[in-house]
Amino acid sequence: MNFTWRMAIILSLSALLGACASTPSKTASAGSGKGGYYLDDGPENHPPEHLDRIPDAVPKKEPLHKFANKPYTAFGKVYVPDTSDKPYKERGVASWYGKRYHNQKTSSGEPYDMYAMTAAHPTLPIPSYVRVTNLSNHKSVVVRINDRGPFRSDRLIDLSYTAAWKLGYINQGSTEVEVERLFPK
Question: Which of 13, 126, 166, 170 has the fewest CB atoms within 10 Å, i.e. the most exposed one?
Fold first, then answer.
């Protein structure tokens, strides 16, 4: 291979790698360690006032969703929802989702409301309830699981905008949490 071809290949690869390394101009990816939110999935321009007054979800007896609790595949991985009544407690990374999915159908068929106290989990029953505690500031909230996700191996749960706001990590994009399943009394 002559010198001209080698230089052309090197320049092409350099341009390609440079494009991959560029950061989005508007935001950083949620959970990237740089804060912000992913693409257009941030808060609305005028979120409601008094998000702190939105009450946590209250665990109540509900029938399990007929379809949202069947085994499914996402991004090549098979997930088997746990429909038992066994306790669940795990630590991991929580992210959040906002306006990009607002009013879109969740796995339960309900519209996603970024101002409700809800969450997505890959295998907990739909519906079910969990207490999520931010391990960096010890704030906690109770949310209702009504959706599937996140589908990244480094994430445990996706919370609604309001739940993440109440836990104090909106500007970070993600945080370390403890998730514990709750049952109706």
Answer: 13
Residue 93 · residue 155 · CB < 8 Å: yes
What is the Cα–Cα distance from 12 to 102, expressed in whole angstroms? 40
CB of 143 closer than 8 Å to CB of 117: yes
Has residue 40 got a pLDDT over 70? no
Fill in the DSSP letter of residue 99.
Answer: T
Q: What pLDDT band is residue 5 in, cutting at 50, 70 and 90?
A: very low
The predicted structure's pLDDT at residue 99 = 67
Q: Give the CATH number of the domain where residue 173 resides.
A: 2.40.40.10
Greatest Cα pair distance, the chain, in angstroms, is 77
Mean of per-residue pLDDT scores for the chain: 80
Q: Is 67 exposed, middle or buried, given 0-12, 13-18 or 19+ CB atoms closer than 10 A?
A: exposed
**CA distances in angstroms from 128 to 20, 91, 93, 157, listed in the order given:** 39, 18, 19, 13
User: How many CB atoms neighbour CB 137 within 10 A?
Assistant: 11
Residue 137's pLDDT is 98
Look up the domain containing 124 and give its range: 3-182
Q: What is the mean pLDDT of residues 117-141?
A: 97
Number of domains forming the structure of the chain: 1
The amino acid present at 22, given as its one-letter code, is S
Residue 36 in contact with residue 173, Cβ under 8 Å? yes
